[in-house]
Fold these 2 entries.
Entry 1:
Amino acid sequence: MTADRGSPPVREIGVALLGLGNVGAGVVKLLEDNAAAIGARLGGRLVVRAIAVRAPGKKKRLVEVDPALLTKDIAGAIARPDVDIVCELIGGDGEAKDAVMAAIAAGKHVVTANKLLLARHGTEVFAAAERHGVDVYYEAAVCGGVPIIRVLREGLASDRVEQFHGIVNGTSNYILTAMAAGGRAFADVLAEAQRLGYAEADPTLDVGGGDAAHKLAILCGLCFGATIDADAIHCDAISELDAVDFAYAAKFGYVIKPVVIGRDHPRGIEARVHPALVPAGWLLAGVTGAKNAVAVDSYALGPSMYYGAGAGMMPTAMAVVSDLIEISRNLRAQLTGVAPTRRHRALARRPLLPMAEIRSRYFLRFSVADKPGVLGQLTTILGAHDVSIEQVVQEAPGDGNRPAQVFVITHEAREGDVAAALGKIGALPATLAAPRLIRIVV
Amino acid sequence: MTADRGSPPVREIGVALLGLGNVGAGVVKLLEDNAAAIGARLGGRLVVRAIAVRAPGKKKRLVEVDPALLTKDIAGAIARPDVDIVCELIGGDGEAKDAVMAAIAAGKHVVTANKLLLARHGTEVFAAAERHGVDVYYEAAVCGGVPIIRVLREGLASDRVEQFHGIVNGTSNYILTAMAAGGRAFADVLAEAQRLGYAEADPTLDVGGGDAAHKLAILCGLCFGATIDADAIHCDAISELDAVDFAYAAKFGYVIKPVVIGRDHPRGIEARVHPALVPAGWLLAGVTGAKNAVAVDSYALGPSMYYGAGAGMMPTAMAVVSDLIEISRNLRAQLTGVAPTRRHRALARRPLLPMAEIRSRYFLRFSVADKPGVLGQLTTILGAHDVSIEQVVQEAPGDGNRPAQVFVITHEAREGDVAAALGKIGALPATLAAPRLIRIVV
């Protein structure tokens, strides 16, 4: 046995930070604020040896750091012999990917919060890590500070995940929570979120589902051992939702949430990102504001849920530093480079299940001419496509001028059938606007 | 570096099961049902070599096992040279403690679901494990399958837990959920729970809070690095609750839940077990039926919550087998005996904060004579003891015969002051029954 026992001498573990934005500054701050507790748990010290930034001369930073640590030289920071762990907080898959691959090749362990990198290039990154005998940890890449990666990789190691539902984009959840509470329009709430710093100036990645899709791909890897094409995941933006959708969802007993859903089918992985009606009694429906959660259904444990801050300086930094601690513990125990074999399942490339083949319940909204027989036409077309109706509500002003609104909750149906029915209904002379579809989680 | 790389030969890890009750049977079943997935994650095989039971000849078991594995000889099962890990599922701190200490002394790693053993003798058990260079894992001891131990030990390793609220006894939560939903009496629901197998024939440990106190002591160790006297933790039984408490809690916007609370104070650890009013909007209030959850507030992450099945054959077995996998991974990586130094904080013996010194908000119920001036007497006494009132509702039948009920929600107050005030109010001639106190989580 090689583990050091008793009271090993205090050792310093050297860290190179790549990036000193929000999360990087949080890492520096947390290492200082919790130094005593971290030292006690680690029996050693995590020391930042270098911080690679774009402009080392910049005066105004989120956290005070020794200017001597700052450098533009990413390669130099990685190569320092006193650096054991490289912490990549640059983001994206350009410079960040080069840096991660260089660190691995140099035999340095890697901690990253980069969901895009792992969603697109995870197989390549982990294969390189295994070849070079180093560890890659990425707890902060999904749900920020919520330790969902450890939970799935270790806590549920003996279980078999059947499906999961997640709220993994805080910006979207903030917006939908505010829309539901105030009966407000999307654009209005988005503008407010941007003012408050909850949404980026270009909110596309958040509200369009791209950010959530990257996290979903990583979760599918952990849950189903599957590598899927992250960029091909079906995403519906939340920007199409109207206040009336929230009002009627509530009448039917649902809350609209920005969800990701993953399921393993023999013919492929069902993975999708879209707003969905969640039963108001579910815990997931109570996840409000910018908070994240993942609800997992697994064979032995049954339903379980993991909830917390999915973004933000200190929560994300917490996940990064917990990864640094884990690697440091392994380093102190002279155990490293086993993460690939100890921690990861072999991933198999799997196809995505085509959206036409998924099964769901649906909330449908039709804007139609307020005339006799129209409701009959709608329901006949739905029935002809094997879409059976659980509840229907018609709101007809009755003055013959304004459109009637028809709201339908369906039983479980095949998405391809629903789409075909909506196509036919959309082409009816009585239909005044494109039919709206929101999926219901079941 | 000592880790085996590439494709190490498949190795068998030998396990001795002590006990083949509900959880033991679940372990056997899960190892069979998920054999392929477990093998893939482990790159090896977990093999049960011996099962120690009270009556090896017994015919009817929850799961079919090879009769050759069954033995009465606990010491013999532990001593087998082909056993690497001893899985203690006997419970209690008699025979089970002897077995765990014997396994550790024999250099065997231990997985246990025994909360009582760890709550009472954790310091001794972990010290022995460190001395003998073996690991002791106990994920199943708290909240069954919910991986709360891993979350606190690893996921939040860089954070500082400030307080936590937990629902850690499924039987109590089942009973209070049913009482709240149906306006039913405690005894009625308990009898039903016993018929359905949710409650033991002797429910004292569950409904009296003893079981929760053991789990609370373990959580305080993980969160605060504190060893506390588990048997001295303040417990209020849920059996004192009346249907009227649930009704008025709901009117004030609360749900009554069986909670444990842990907080670190300079002068001691605040640790208590009692039913409490939880704001209806909190996620914890939505944890219903026999489910468990722990809501943690920590410095960097802020609020987070972990939810799932806290008991039951398969959920508990899942936690046990995940621990077996973790130790097996370490064994395969030739890394064992580092759990004490890698995984545990040094625990310091800390005093419990006396209940008189805790601060809380309170829900108070008084049964008093329906006469003028009585409400004034109550509120005057409360005010004289620094207990200020947030809301008060009086239900007076007005016929001068039946008692009036007074319901009070207080602002935060010191428990010693509240107790003194209730003592005085209880002694008033107008008071017809002992005043009732239920704490409110804030």
Entry 2:
Amino acid sequence: MMSDAELESLNLRVVRIVYQTYTRFQNCLDEILAVQGLTTERYFVLLAIKNHGDTARITDIARWAERSTNSVSMIVDRMVKDGLLRRARDRRDRRAVNVSITRKAEDLLTPANIASVEFIRKIMSPLSSDDAHTIIGLFTRLNYRLLEHHNPGADIDGILKDDSDLHDRLIKKMAEQRTLTTA
Amino acid sequence: MMSDAELESLNLRVVRIVYQTYTRFQNCLDEILAVQGLTTERYFVLLAIKNHGDTARITDIARWAERSTNSVSMIVDRMVKDGLLRRARDRRDRRAVNVSITRKAEDLLTPANIASVEFIRKIMSPLSSDDAHTIIGLFTRLNYRLLEHHNPGADIDGILKDDSDLHDRLIKKMAEQRTLTTA
């Protein structure tokens, strides 16, 4: 049995190494995307819209990026100003605003996808596919607990299923895009 | 053997689940710290200073938080304005500015530490100590690769050893503080 102090020390080591790895990953990705004229934040917004079917609402982007609609609104405003996104009224719900990706952003997105996939492959190369599945399994359990904490009484399995469906759709789109690019 | 497409899909699933878990963790921690009148960002700055021995330079804080000195400078400015930090010239290096924690911040830090350790324990409870060690091992390998990518030719083992020493010092300080609080 571990003492309370040992358990706490182990927990904090996990949080610290995940924080460091995540932050260093994001810093490297920022540098890679800067070469393509994007930030990680903007890249994620473009991926979210792409994933949603070429046009998306602020709430769709916020959900995918796990950000508040307020902070996504601010990023989207700046991206519209810089000619990366275009606004359009939703045909079915006239209060909602859809955003779509401009040609200019599309031209940045393809090399950004290639560079980020290449970078991720390089960073992940020391891990076997069993290791990757181990991380997915352990983090899914942590995710479950976080969702329970944040949404008491909610259907957590349903939320995780939606997450996973959304993600599968993105992977498929990225693969299709690559096929189009290399064809 | 996995095809390129399968490997890429697996890599992206790992990145996605780590991103989601990390972001959800940070969102929950933000809410918990808001009750204490802190943000996660400010809490990390206070921890970094505490860890460094009650006073620290901007570069020390930036290093610990894996942030740029510019962004840390801006956070520190606002924290000084809000009475959470105090500036003082370094006695040995007159160009450097040290910051230290005020009584007001100290009073926020103790309940923030208790609340965040409690939250971390709750989220980590589904994992065994073997699981925790597995995460530490796998993420240390990813960290190694990220450091190699970012600092070609550097002494990565040295950097990882420094990280680990810094972290051990913080754990010890947090435990000491708790003993003082509960005594």
